[in-house]
């Protein structure tokens, strides 16, 4: 077993273990992948201010996200089809998160259902919902979240239509995979993945099949998703969703200060500055560049989180220093899951925690809650001097 010291080690291992179709689904951005690349690259433009001879004993990364205690300011982001990266993937990721003490957010488009995850975990998780036209389905989704004791709902607002990822189209992505000569040849190499997948019955979209009207199989599911993502979505419609859910609400997918202000007006408890990991509008600003102007606009009105591009604890530290109350990780934990199941997700969290804790100490802080902009050296014009 290779020694795993960084998230990149998990990505390499994941690439070997999982069929190409699902690796590509995760490791891609839309169109030219400019935003996907810049999400990670832009973090590197920010430097950390090293301090010395400051007592660094008794450190803590504990804090709160939407009033809930967390072992570090990190949550597991909603990732569709996680159960195709590893059998029962959502349950495994949720278990790793709860043992570590960080929130897990289940996607609407998950393989394991809300009820499956609830039955296999002890602590409440968050549920992400897409904005769909089918009101009955939406209300039922919120009701199911309530019954499962979810401690927050997350409305993703940046997917009225699906960004085009070339690789998914070329690979003929589907869940479960269609058995063509090409996919069969690829899966023949992934024996442990295939054997585990054969042992689970969870291979379809568990939140949808059997719950949405007229969706009983993979073919009807495709039609339903195409017809139901709401291209007419507006902030009034989001207010209607707010009425369907009376618990803590997070709006995910904000990259512009004007939209951040709108999100405050619908009564959300937090927003996530996110460009969907570079999977929607290619050419959009990276999240870390977008964070500063959004903090200026709404930082005193609402809790702000950030995702897209986090691959290390140093990235988390930089986002927190710029004002984010927490960060969400997507690919970083999927690499771990695909590579080593639940143990791999735990490994990803341990790697990020260690990097966060040590970097915080070397910047002269012992408590994550005291970290501020002073630890950063941000290049002039980092957030852009755009016309
Ligand atoms: C494979 C994949 C599937 C995703 N599925 C969803 C989803 O179902 N719902 C959602 O709100 N975001 C989804 N996202 C976006 C993530 O929640 C998150 O915003 C993104 O992964 C953050 O970027 P990072 O992967 O660089 O950390 C997905 C991301 C990936 C990589």
Automatic annotation (TrEMBL):
So what EC number does this one have?
A: 1.1.2.3
Active site (catalytic residues)? 276 (proton acceptor)
> By its UniProt entry, which CDD domains does this protein fall under?
alpha_hydroxyacid_oxid_FMN
* PROSITE patterns named in the record: FMN_HYDROXY_ACID_DH_1, FMN_HYDROXY_ACID_DH_2
For this protein, the record's SUPFAM superfamilies field holds: FMN-linked oxidoreductases
- Molecular function in Gene Ontology: FMN binding; L-lactate dehydrogenase (cytochrome) activity
| InterPro entries assigned | Aldolase_TIM, Alpha-hydoxy_acid_DH_FMN, FMN-dep_DH, FMN_HAD, FMN_hydac_DH_AS
Q: Name one Pfam family in it.
A: FMN_dh
Q: Which cofactor does it need?
A: FMN
Which branch of life, at top level? Bacteria
Residues binding FMN are 78-80, 107, 128, 130, 156, 252, 274, 307-311, 330-331
> Which sites bind glyoxylate?
25, 165, 276, 279
Alphabetically sorted, this entry's keywords are: Flavoprotein, FMN, Oxidoreductase
FMN hydroxy acid dehydrogenase domain segment(s): 1-381
Q: Which GO terms describe its cellular component?
A: plasma membrane
Belongs to which family? Answer: Belongs to the FMN-dependent alpha-hydroxy acid dehydrogenase family.
What's the protein name? Answer: L-lactate dehydrogenase
Source organism phylogeny: Bacteria, Pseudomonadati, Pseudomonadota, Alphaproteobacteria, Rhodobacterales
